[in-house]
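Recall that a protein's primary structure is simply its ordered list of amino acids. Everything else, from secondary elements to tertiary packing, is in principle encoded there. The following example makes that idea concrete.
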Amino acid sequence: MKPVSQRPRSSLLGIFLLAAAFATLLFVLLVPKWDHPWDPIESRDWGWRGIAMNTFTSARTRNDPINLVPAATAPFPDSGIAAGEVYENIEVLSDLDSAQFDYLMQAMTEWVAPEEGCSYCHKSGESFASDDLYTKQVARRMLEMVRDVNTNARHVGNVGITCFTCHRGNNVPPKHWYKGAPPEPPMGGIVGKPPPWNRTATTMRDFFPRAPFENYLLDDQTISGAQARSVSGEVAEIADLENIYILMMQMSDGMGVNCTFCHNTRAFADWSQSTPNRVNAWYGIRMSRRINRDYLTEMQGLFPPNRLGPLGDVAKVDCATCHNGMSRPLGGERMAERYRGLFGPGSAVAPTRATAFETRKAHQAVLTQPGVDERAVTLDKE
C-alpha cells in the first residue's frame, strides 16, 4: 500500500470534493429557514435617498401557510328575526339577526376549532344553551374582546380583526407567550451572559426571555430613555435597556420588518424623523396591553391547568400573535366587515372613520411638537 504522500492527487481531490458536497447537503438540511437565491429579499425605502431607511421583506414570510386567508362563504340572507328570539342564553349577540348569528357561529368554528366543530364549545347531546364547557364561556368573552377592538381600537384602523387573525384554525393561537418561558438568563440579562441558556432556541422569538412582554405588554412600564438623547432627558438602567431592545426585536420579528419601518436610525428617539408607522405601533402596544390585562388575564380562572403556562398564567398576545411575520396581518385583508356581529352596538360594519394612515399622520403631528413628551400625550383609549 502506498503512503498517503504518494497517493494520486486526483484521489485526494475527490475525497475533498465529496466532503464539501456532504457539508453543503448538511447545511441545506439542518439550517432553519433561509431565503433562496430565487426568492430575493425585497427592499422598500421609507425616507429620503441616502439615509438608508429601508425595510426588507421576503416572499417566504408572506407565503407562510398560516398567512393564507380562508375562503369566504356567501353571507346568509337576513331572516328578520333576532338571535335572542330564536336561541336561548344569548348574552352578546341577542340583537343580531339570527341568520347572521348562524353565519358568524359557522365562521368561528372554522377559525378556532375546524376539527372539533360545534362540540368544541357545545357538549354533544346537550342543549346549545348550556354553559357547562369552559370553551363556550371563553368564546363569549373573546367575542366581546373582538367587538371592543373593532369598535374602539385605533390600531386596527378600518380593517378590523376576527378570531382567525390570531387563531389561524387552531384552538390556541400559534404565537403566544407565558410568564417565565423561556427561562431567564442566569445573571438577569442578555448582554455578555454565557451559554448554555440560549442554545435551545431555534428562532429569535424563543431566544429571548419574556420579561419585556411582561413589563410592556402586560404592565405599564414606560418605554423610554433607551438613548442618551431622549425627549425627557432620562437614561434607562442597563436592565431596562436590554428589555427595551428585546421588545423592539420581538416586534420587528413578529411583523417581518426592521427598525426603519418605524424609526430613522440616525435619531431613534425623534418622533419628527420617524415614519407614521411609529404612532400606529404606539397604539398597538397599548392595544396588546389592554387585551392581555382586561380580557385574557381576567379569564384565567376559566382555563384548565393544561391550558396554562409553567407559572400557571393564561396565554397572552404580542405583535406576532396577529401579524405573524407580516407588517399587516393577512396582508391587510378586511375580513371583519363580512360579519356584523364582530362590531359593537352602534358601530358601522366596515367603519367609516379615518384610515389608519390618516390617523397615524394626524397624531404624529401632535407628538412632534417642540417639548412634547410622548408619554404624557393621551391618544384615545389605546
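The longest helix spans residues 9-30. The CA atoms of residues 263 and 274 lie 5 Å apart.
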